[in-house]
Fold:
Amino acid sequence: MSGWLDRLAHVFGRRIVLSLDQEQRLQAWRVQPRTALNIPFESSRYVVMDVETSGLNLRKDKLISIGAVAVVNGRIALGDCFYIVLQQEVASERDNILLHEISGSKQRAGKPAADALLGFLEFIGKDPLVAFHVAFDKTMLRKSIRQYLGFAFKHPWLDLAYVLPGLNPLAAHRLHTLDDWSNHFVIGNEARHNALADALATAQLLLIAQNQAGLKKINCFENMHYVEKLQRTL
Structure:
């Protein structure tokens, strides 16, 4: 056999083999059409995400949990959420557990990584991803997908850490972190460092950004991404 149903990949020095069901799920996701990025906010779906990891080292630390919430047609869809803990062979360090409160037993009892990541891909479809400081989330997600699913994950991302300063230049010099911007716009988050709670706070920031952008005749992902690119050059 060859192709998807007999795919073996060398990833990080080891061979991975997906089951037939996993191969079929991955193929079903991959053949979905790409979402157009020029669709107005009021007719689009964005997936706002956050991750928790075993630490901040992009090379050695591991993805522990993923939280995501959809913003559909300019509104947060609370019924369209995703949260998963990835199974860990060895739980993270005590200080790390105290931060995100995912106990060692919960980590060891989590969803097998390949199935967890497939579930996330099925949740997002081909809709754009949004995060605050995309580089970390994107790198950890891509590393895990390559390790457990065996392919390079490429997807459209929007980084609110650049979009918000681009839309609020007078506040940009004093607001830098997710907490800074959340406090500025009076967004509460009683479960900070829970991936789903942080995704929900970020989704509220996205709604504010969309409203502000609309006042400037910026009404789709493509245009918002242009704001991000301009801000990055600064």
Q: What stands out?
A: The beta strands are 8-11, 14-17, 45-53, 63-72, 75-85, 129-131, 157-159. The CA atoms of residues 142 and 153 lie 6 Å apart. The two ends are 52 Å apart (CA to CA). The first helix runs from residue 20 to 30.
